[in-house]
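INTERNAL AUDIT FORM
Audit reference: QA-55
Scope: verify that the stored structure record matches its stored sequence.
Auditor: D.O.
Record contents follow.
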Amino acid sequence: MKAMSIQPLSVLAGCGITVLALLAMGQAPASTAPKLEYRIVEDIDASDLSKLAEEGWDYAGYLGAGKKGASNDETLWKRAAK
């Protein structure tokens, strides 16, 4: 049986990989997404639009017909959580 020998290049490579791994684990986590709150508005009109804008709401999308019937439209609004 042969005697085990230490290869200096392998030891150096192992130490380098260990240092890189420790540096990567020590980094700060990525910033989290901002917290948002949502609101559903039914049958919106011009006066509702100005009120929502004053309160900081942004249009997020059209949800479709509401439960009250085909003439009842619902829209989704979002803003940063307070």
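Auditor finding: record pair retrieved intact. The chain has two helices and three strands.
Action required: none
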